[in-house]
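Researcher: Here's my situation. A collaborator sent me these components and asked whether they could plausibly form a single complex. I don't have experimental data yet, so a predicted model of the whole assembly would be a useful starting point for our discussion.
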Amino acid sequence: MNALGKHLLLELKGCNKEVLNDIGFLKGALLAAADEIGATVLGESFYQFAPQGVTGVVVIAESHLVIHTWPEYGYAAVDIFTCGNSVQPEKAVEILVGKLGSKNHSEIEMPRGILDT
Amino acid sequence: MNALGKHLLLELKGCNKEVLNDIGFLKGALLAAADEIGATVLGESFYQFAPQGVTGVVVIAESHLVIHTWPEYGYAAVDIFTCGNSVQPEKAVEILVGKLGSKNHSEIEMPRGILDT
């Protein structure tokens, strides 16, 4: 099966609630993850919500990383979408699970762009 | 099943190849889709690749819309991630399928943030 992209959908539960509301920390964590997997960062946008919660996007030449957090539930949804063989998205999972202190995480990999040959 | 977020993963095949490389058109299409589903747009970032292809993100208060295009294959990957009950993400599917002229599309809905109760 040959797909153009690899999309990892992470469910991070049991996270450090303070970290999930710390926009600066989360920006650093996603940028560190992008760097670690060998991605080329093109830009980033992070938003703090009231009373709590953060949304962050890091656009990479190889596609994107996105995080949405619900500090009140200790939960974060993370997407790591990459294309090409030069990046290793699985490395980002370990980094983000560690930085967010998730005690219970799950991961689904969705191939994207399976073209008829 | 009660989930915090609803994530639609769209595979748009058989699209109009010129449109898939038109960054201005794609930005307009995603913003129109965000507007149509009742989302609050917080920001957007679009990037043109060489020799072809576009990546675009629209961050909304309710989460995000993302597109990655491969004009050479007439293919676009689209994600529509929303939370809350005030938006109707399914409406965006119809709009984007129409605007991109996709002759063959598929859609997977992934619930995000199913918490233990």
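Model: Some features of this prediction you could bring to your collaborator: Chain B touches chain A through 32 residues (CB under 8 Å). The mean pLDDT of chain B is 96.
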